[in-house]
Amino acid sequence: MSTTSKAKLPPRVTESLINRLTAMVTAGKAGEAREPFEMTETYTGDVVGYLPQSSPEDVVAAVEMARAAQKEWAARPLKDRLAVFERAHELLLTEIETLADLIQIGCGKARRMAIEEVCDTPLVIAQYLKTAAKTLKPKKRSGPMPVITSSTEEHRPKGVVAVIAPWNFPFAISMSDSTPALIAGNGVIMKPDNKTALCTLYGIELLHKAGLPRGLVQVVCGVGPDVGPTLIDNVEFVMFTGSTATGRTIGEQSGRNLIGCSLELGGKNPMIVLDDVNFDEAIPSILFAAFGNAGQICMHIERIYVQERIYDEFLRRFTAAAEELAGKMGASYDFAPEMGSLVSVDHMKRVAAHVDEAREKGATIVTGGNPRPDLGPAFFEPTVLTGVTNDMALATMETFGPVVSIYKYKTDAEAVALANDTPYGLNAAIWTGNFDRATKLAETIESGSININDGFITSYAAKGTPSGGVKQSGVGTRHGAAGLLKYTDTINVGVQKKQIMASRSSMPYEKQLKSTLVTLRLMRRLHLG
Ligand code: NAD
C-alpha cells in the first residue's frame, strides 16, 4: 500500500460514497484474490480509495449473473425498458455535479469538460427514446413470391455484451455505449479503466435508482490483459473503445470466437485551413479542437494544414491564443480553469517524449513544450510546433496530448493528400468561408467523421448519425439506428402460405426452368420481389 497522503476531495464525494461504489465491483467472489488498485486524485497524486480487482473467475461469475437477469429484461416490453431510461435521463442531469466531481478526480480534466462529458449520455438516451421503437420494430418484407410468401425482419438482443472503456471520457463512453445495448434487451459487463471507474459505478447506481434490474449490469475491474480474454470468451458481443493496438487484440479474439465487435480506436486527426477563413470565428474553435480536454479526445486535431497565403497570420494568432490558454490552466473543481491536467504522470511523460524527440530532430517549438509541475504532477502546456517531419513520432503517431503541429500547403489537392497521409481515419476538419468548396474537398478526405467549420463537436454531438473510424481507426459505428442494431441479431422469419416453391417432381425440369424464367421476368417488370 502507498505512503502517499489522503486526498482532500470535493464535499459531495464522501468516504462512504467511495466505499459504496467500490463495493459494486464484481470481485473477490471466485478465484485467487487480487491486490486492490490504489486510486489517486490526478491533480495531487493523493490516495482516494482502493478499487477491488476482478479475477478471471469473477468475470465468469459476472457474466452468469448478467445472463440470469437478461432473460427477464429482454422479455419486458420495449416501452418498459425505455421508461427506465426516461427516469435515468433526469437522474443523470440532477446528479451532474457529483458525476463531474468523480470524473475530475479520476482523470483531472477541467470542470467544464467534465460537465460536457456527463451531458453525452442524456443526449444518447434522448435519441433512443425517440427512435428505438421504430428501429427495433419487426419489419414485414415481401417474400420471394408476392402474397403467397412473406418474410419478417426481427431484431433480438444478442445476450450479454462487454463494454470496454478507456480513461479519457470514462463516463460518457461506458454509459453511452451501454445505453443502446440495454435498450435492445441485453445484459452488460462493463470494464472501465481502473483510474476512472468511480464515475461509471455512480452512473450504474443511478440506473438502478431509475429501475434497472440489479444484476443486469456488472462491473469488472482489472488490468486489461488479465480480465479481457476471459470476458471476450464469455460474451456475445464486444464494444471496445481504446487504442488501435488493443483494438487489434480484441478484434483478433472476437474473430476467433466468431462474435461481433465494434472497435472505436485512435486517430491522428488533420484540419485544413483554407485561405478564405474568418480568423475571428475560426481561432477559438480551432483552439478547442486542438487543446480541448488537454488534447485527450480521440477526435481532437493534432495536425493543422494552413494555406501559405494566410500561414504567417494564422500561426501568429493561433500561438497567441494558445499562450492565453496556458494562463488559464489549473487544478480545481470549479469552472475557473479552461484546461486541466493530463490523466497521469506516465501519460504526460509519453506526450513530453514526442515533443522532445521532435525538438531534437529539428522541429521548432513555437510555444509550450514543457510540463507544469507547479500546477500538478501531470500538467503539460498547450504546445505548438512547426517544422515537424515524417521521421518524428509526433508526425505520424497519436500523441493524445495538448500538442499540435502546423504545416504550410499551396493547393487544395496537396492539402488533402497531406491530410490523408496517415494509417488512421477517425476525424478530419476543414475551415473555410465557402461551404461548396469545403463540401467538394470533404468528398476526397478519408475519415469516418468530417467537420466543416468545426473541429469535432458538430459530428460528435449528432447522435442520430452513426459514426466511427475508417482505416486503422475502427470497425463499426456508434449512434443512430446502426448503433442500436449492432447489439441485436437479425432474424429472418419466412412464411410460405401455399406449397408452390418445392420441386415439382411431376414436371420435367426443362419445363420448370421455362416457367421460372417467365416468372422472374414478370416480377422484374412489375417491380415485385
Ligand atoms: P487502451 O487501449 O490502453 O485501453 C482501453 C481499455 O481497454 C482500458 O479499459 C484497458 O484496461 C482495456 N484493455 C487493455 N488491454 C485489454 C485487453 N487485452 N483485453 C481487454 N481490455 C483491455 O486505451 P487508453 O489508453 O485507455 O485510451 C486512449 C486511446 O483510446 C486513444 O488511442 C484514443 O484515441 C482512444 N479513444 C478512441 C475513441 C473513439 O471513439 N474512437 C474514444 C476515446 C478514446
UniProtKB/TrEMBL annotation:
Entries under PROSITE patterns matching the protein: ALDEHYDE_DEHYDR_GLU
Lineage of the organism: Bacteria, Bacillati, Actinomycetota, Actinomycetes, Mycobacteriales
Keywords: Oxidoreductase
SUPFAM superfamilies for this protein: ALDH-like (SSF53720)
Active site: 264
InterPro entries named among the record's database cross-references: Ald_DH/histidinol_DH, Ald_DH_C, Ald_DH_CS_GLU, Ald_DH_N, Aldehyde_DH_dom
The keyword Mitochondrion is annotated on this UniProt entry: no
Protein name: Succinate-semialdehyde dehydrogenase (NADP(+))
Keyword presence, Oxidoreductase: yes
Record-linked CDD domains: ALDH_SSADH2_GabD2
Organism of origin: Nocardia tengchongensis
Protein family (similarity comment): Belongs to the aldehyde dehydrogenase family.
Domain Aldehyde dehydrogenase: 35-490
Record-linked Gene3D superfamilies: Aldehyde Dehydrogenase, Chain A, domain 1, Aldehyde Dehydrogenase, Chain A, domain 2
NCBIfam families listed in its UniProt record: PRK09407.1 (NF006916)
